Amino acid sequence: MTETLADFRRRVADFLAHHGCPAGAAPSRSRRPADHVAAARVHQRALADAGLAGITWPVEVGGLGLGPEYRQAFAEESAGFETFSAVFTIGLGMCGPVLLALGTADQRSRYLPPLLRADEVWCQLFSEPGAGSDLAGLTTTAVPDDDGGWRIRGQKVWTTYAHHSDRALLLARTDPGKAKHRGITMFVLDMTAPGVTVRPLRQATGDAEFNEVFLDDVRVGPDDVVGAVDEGWRAATLMLMNERVALADNPIGSPVTLDAVVALANRTGRTTDPVVRKAVADAYVAQQQAELFARRIAGEVRVGRDPGALASIGKLAAGRLATQVSALALEVAGPDAVAWDPADPDGGLWAYGELYAPSLSIAGGTEQIQRTVLGERVLGLPREPQADRDVPFRELRRG
Amino acid sequence: MTETLADFRRRVADFLAHHGCPAGAAPSRSRRPADHVAAARVHQRALADAGLAGITWPVEVGGLGLGPEYRQAFAEESAGFETFSAVFTIGLGMCGPVLLALGTADQRSRYLPPLLRADEVWCQLFSEPGAGSDLAGLTTTAVPDDDGGWRIRGQKVWTTYAHHSDRALLLARTDPGKAKHRGITMFVLDMTAPGVTVRPLRQATGDAEFNEVFLDDVRVGPDDVVGAVDEGWRAATLMLMNERVALADNPIGSPVTLDAVVALANRTGRTTDPVVRKAVADAYVAQQQAELFARRIAGEVRVGRDPGALASIGKLAAGRLATQVSALALEVAGPDAVAWDPADPDGGLWAYGELYAPSLSIAGGTEQIQRTVLGERVLGLPREPQADRDVPFRELRRG
Amino acid sequence: MTPYTDEHDQLRASVRGLVRTDRSRARENTGHDVTLWRRMCDELGVAGLAIPEVQGGAGFGVVELAVVAEEVGRANLPSPFLTTAVAGLALAAAGEDVGAIARGERLATVSFSPDGRHVPDGDVADVLVLVDVTGASVEVVELGGVPRTALTTMDLTRGQAHLDLRGAPRREIDVPAHRVAALAATLLACEQIGGAERVLETSTAYASQRVQFGRPVGSFQAVKHLLADMLVDLELARSAQQHAVALAADTGTSAPVLDAASRTARAACSRAFTRISSDGIRVHGGIGYTWEHDAHLYFRRARASAVLFTPGDDADRLAAYAGLAS
Amino acid sequence: MTPYTDEHDQLRASVRGLVRTDRSRARENTGHDVTLWRRMCDELGVAGLAIPEVQGGAGFGVVELAVVAEEVGRANLPSPFLTTAVAGLALAAAGEDVGAIARGERLATVSFSPDGRHVPDGDVADVLVLVDVTGASVEVVELGGVPRTALTTMDLTRGQAHLDLRGAPRREIDVPAHRVAALAATLLACEQIGGAERVLETSTAYASQRVQFGRPVGSFQAVKHLLADMLVDLELARSAQQHAVALAADTGTSAPVLDAASRTARAACSRAFTRISSDGIRVHGGIGYTWEHDAHLYFRRARASAVLFTPGDDADRLAAYAGLAS
Predict the structure, then answer these.
(1) At D119, is the secondary structure helix, strand, or coil?
(2) What does residue C259 show for φ and ψ, rounded to 5 degrees?
(3) Do C315 and A277 touch (CB under 8 A)?
(4) Cβ neighbours of residue A123 under 8 Å, at least 6 residues apart?
């Protein structure tokens, strides 16, 4: 018989009482990324051991086989605790559901249990130097070898956590004679396979969350195809849908929050300046809207609905809010925000936030892409004339 | 011998001392348009009688045949005086130069002297309901008649001062079998000819500065073609270039100026509110930039250079400034800005300004068009793929 | 999550149906559209919607008022619904005789200006609920003999008047001032969301159909992204508005929580409606700037609504709710 | 109108030529790029450019300083040119011995903070010109024995330090405080314009060459219009900057006129450079967000420059220049 919601909630609360990490107490994701990932693995393993991982996943791959209302309950109980969601968005939020939907029985039983226990961390090898906004323009190739497997050559980029990952879902072009969105295949890749080189990519903030991944004649076997050969774009679309769902459930925001800026203003006595009060009020209204919208979408997601293109609104709102709040921080902190005593460990926070903010408007689809998505898929506006739809890929202009 | 600059300046000063109308003393352009146009005619005639009209125009058409430095001197001397430039931008600033450049000897001697004296006021019949941003998409047709002339049918719109005008330069399609930008011809039109109906178009402000013009089988003669048949797009381009020059020389702004808003704040005692002070400072910086930019461009224009696409910057700046200042006015005036005692003759000014502002971002090319012009012609960015360039006009999609 | 259920869809459809046959227009100089108001009261009972049945109303609640306010905003109706709904509910809660108000025969209005200036629908109202939020008191003022100056308004769909309240008889009533203020702000936000939604719909339709350069203008990124930004503004503001409606409908909501949510909703929706209605004019190009087109009517309403019921301490209070010390 | 003539083009070309062989990079932790600075001084004499010949300089004026400042900004040089030019000119005007400064052997800097905090190039300067605009006094402080804390800076191309001036020997010099302030603000604006101009150029080039969806991304309106807005910001700010340069170069300009123009230029150029360098990152997409790409270096400089030399009374004074009563 299925566990009741109340019993489930009690188990979650019990788990958190023993193993829960209060929000903010884990090693910083941006400043101690390796420690953060290690802590995340420990936490996820404990969850699995407690029988709380994979709430909505089937029992046969190690999940609990419960309905979305249990996920909602879990989210409610774990408010105030660190969920390490950024580490697991890709593996548990995106790769897992795709393997569940499109993987063979073999792939599911081989990959999903260790994914759920964080024994194996996954990443996503999609973007390339020449294929960013235009993901379907990817040029990494997979050429059949004599044993029914494939040889992969190319370069990927912006791969979050590649240097902490064991496996990846990868997109490669298997038939350049087909149109751009056809002729792509999805593969499972072992990140330790010969020919895979990961090079961390330092960002404007100084962090290195992303990576370049070089693929030099990497072999994958015939069993590593996910879904059908040349049908990888469908798999990619499913993966991106799951990304929307995962991010709607656990939005990624800036480390500089309005609360932090307000605390700064309280500390530095800038509370009676009417210009500051007005700017804080404006930011509060923006932050409330973003938060209430995220709650609206997360509510949908947790009962099993795809937020669809509306998720782009949440992403735009998060990016704009981060920009507004970090600018406000610079306003409130004044010259101290841009030059600080090296002895002050938090001195650089405001500059960090200001440099971090643009990434929210770029990563995972630029502002421009999000607005196009909203215009076309939500408002139903006509598409632009497209030069690259029905032509064999090899004849397209690239750069 | 050419008059010296000093002598010329003296004559201008002398004229203004007797006939000059201090800025702001003329009947309001927006509230008493007919009186404004009448006053403008009187003023222009006096200028002509004093031998000060058409400074850079050839002597044989009634001009003075002087260099652009005299125009600059005139502009400097007449600072602080009403120039009625809005009334004459189209006739003197745009139609005149086009007739000078492309008109026959006959057209020049017949039309230019009365244009210079404001005995005849001119308007521009270009835009149509279906051809706004896409001016070359016009569908008004001119069909040859048996006597070598043409029959014109169609509808024009957004015609400034059509109801006060005697003549017009009109664009009509003479060959729909040619591509869009070919097959257009420019004509001189007598606004009193049978078949011409002018209907004032009321704007959001309640003013009626623009008109619809219906052309129902209007005859023009063979001598009324300006330039060559089917070469009207070149003439139109020249006309729009002159519009940029004329507007750079005499920009059109909002009736709600920063000075007016500051005066309001001083009057209502909102001078010590730091939020108001900051907003006024911001608007001041914007206004100074717009003004200094306009001065930079006007300097170029008055020594005879075409500001080219850079003029779009001035237009965008004017539109954005008007929006910023009218919003500031509403902020400063508060509830009084949106509801006022009918006995207060100036009560509606702030609402008027707020309703007027969008017109500056629409008329004469929308913000979007201006930004495309800047991107392509100043920055040299590549154009969009165009569906409508090399196809016979009659086969194009229209709406 | 949305406070609306399937039953609210029916109410929404009824209002929209009635309005469709009697569509948006500017009120003529003074006075609201009396014929329309009678139909709204007689056919739908909007004036007494949330007034308890024992007091002559239909006994519904705040959520139903929110639905009607959205529809009034959508159609940009010259209707005193908002003011009389807020004032009527306050009077009913205080145990006043509101039978005529529930039937729409008497018009009540509400104001937060102690000096009687800029009273919305003050040109047509019979009775005024005057709220002093700071002093936490609410008074009722009969407007029969009160001298009034009907104002010229930027908004052509809602009148205002300066009322000379010096000699007017006032009487304090027992109703929480903060709840009246929150309800007024929240229902105004509903009107604004309705208006913004409609502007986005018409703008999207226009951009899909208007062809320039051989393509619908909505296929150009400049227009598409402008419309997308309007959508973003709308949906973010709607989240704040629905949250405020849900809290206002719940009598257990504490005063500061309700105050924060309703002020946030009003600020968010005022900005969104102003921006969206202004951009709506731009999307329509020249045609949107003509008197005949509705676009400026929505913009006029947005601009006027943005300063309605606005206490001067909004920035101060919202900053405090953000945690900024006073 | 532009204050520059054909001769200034030569100077500009010389600076640009030198810089091209020694291109922009982040300063390493502390200290400016000493090698670069020696070349700028030895080959182009930038340190003494506007110092009179009798005092060991080249005897040029403010306009020449403006040209160099623009180029320093364009290349985003880790160079103390701005501070030492402003301070050196002030010291020269006061009749001080500025020979070593004119040769670039001694570094002077300038600050408007009475408490010695956030002094630009304060980590490397030998002498400080301390300006009190309110009190209209200017002091010179030898920094030899002054305790300093070199700060960590967001801007990787210009250092700052907190200086402990309590025991430092100070001496008042006779030079108009407002002119020093105006020159500092104006030359900073020049740096900002140079940087903004360069960002726009590289962004335009990238958008013209980067292909996505089978077309250069600059052919998409979204990117094209973003770049067009950057151009608008740049050219409007440039108008304010050139106006301030022309007025600062004219010794006949009255104090309030110069103050208004230089504050306007700084405010305009600070905003423009911040927006343009931020949008520059966006135009470049992911690549612009990497450490290796220059884009973030310009943005860092823009953000730090926006609060350099900024007295707290800017909004107040600019509002006064707009005519708002005090």
Answers:
(1) strand
(2) -65, -45
(3) yes
(4) A90, A91, A159, A160, A161, A162, A165, A167, A168, A191
Residue A248: band (very low, low, confident or very high) from pLDDT cuts 50, 70, 90: confident
Q: Helix crossing, A274-302 with A68-77: angle to 10°?
A: 150
Rounded CA separation A222/B59 (Å): 88
- Minimum distance, in Å, between the CA of residue C225 and any CA atom of chain D: 8
| ipTM, 2 dp | 0.94
Q: For D285, which of A339, A354, A366 is closest by C-beta distance?
A: A366
Q: What is the mean pLDDT of chain A?
A: 91
Which of B274, B275, B385 minimises the CB distance to A387? B385
Report pLDDT for C156: 92
Minimum CA–CA partner of C286 in chain B: B362
List pLDDT tens digits, range C122-132.
999 999 999 99
Amino acid (one-letter) located at B11: R
> Is A273–B273 a contact, with Cβ atoms under 8 angstroms apart?
no
pLDDT tens across D57-104, in order? Answer: 999 999 999 999 999 999 999 999 999 999 999 999 999 999 999 999
Could you give the CA distance from residue B396 to residue D4 in angstroms, rounded to a whole number? 50
Q: For A345-364, what is the mean pLDDT?
A: 90
Scanning A193-252 for CB atoms below 8 A from B yields none
* CA-derived radius of gyration, chain A: 22
Question: Would D20 be classed as within a structural domain?
Answer: no
pLDDT for C29 equals 47
Residue D187 inside a domain? The answer is yes
- Domain hosting C218: range is 178-321
**Residue A349: φ, ψ to 5°:** -60, -45
pLDDT in tens, A133-146: 899 999 999 999 99
- C8–chain A nearest CA distance, Å: 19
Strands (E), D103-245: 108-111, 119-120, 127-132, 137-142, 148-150, 152-153, 160-163, 170-173, 211-212, 215-216
Q: Is residue C200 part of a domain?
A: yes
Q: Which of B117, B228, B208, B111 is nearest to B159 (CA)?
A: B208
A184 pLDDT higher than 60: yes
Q: Nearest residue of B to residue C303 by CA position? A: B338
Is residue D205 a part of any domain in this protein?
yes
How many domains does chain D divide into?
1
Q: Choose the mutation target among B271, B272, B278, B391 for the interface with A, i.e. most A CBs under 10 Å.
A: B278
User: What domains lie within chain A, and their CATH numbers?
Assistant: 5-120 (1.10.540.10), 123-232 (2.40.110.10), 251-365 (1.20.140.10)
pLDDT (0 to 100) of residue C22: 53
Give the whole-angstrom CA distance, residue D104 versus residue D33. 13
Q: What is the mean pLDDT of each run of 10 residues along chain B (399 residues)?
A: 90 94 83 87 95 93 90 88 88 94 95 96 94 92 95 95 93 94 96 96 89 97 96 92 79 87 95 95 97 86 76 91 96 96 92 93 86 95 83 79
Instruction: Return the half-sphere exposure (C-beta side, CA atoms, 13 A cut-off) of residue B32.
Output: 10
pTM of the entire predicted model = 0.94
Q: Which residue numbers of C have CB closer than 8 Å to B's CBs?
A: 117-118, 149-155, 160, 162, 209-217, 220, 222-223, 278, 281-282, 285-292, 295-296, 299-300, 303-304, 307, 315
**d(CA A280, nearest CA chain D) in Å:** 18
The Cα–Cα gap between B220 and B232 comes to 15
**CATH number of the domain that residue C184 is part of:** 1.20.140.10
Given a cut of 90, is residue A345 above it in pLDDT? no
Cα distance from A246 to chain B (closest Cα, Å)? 36
Write the residue in B201, B204, B342 that is nearest to C296 by C-beta. Answer: B204
Answer yes or no: do A374 and C204 touch at CB < 8 A. Answer: no
Catalytic residue numbers of B read 243
Which residues in chain D land under pLDDT 70? 1, 21-31
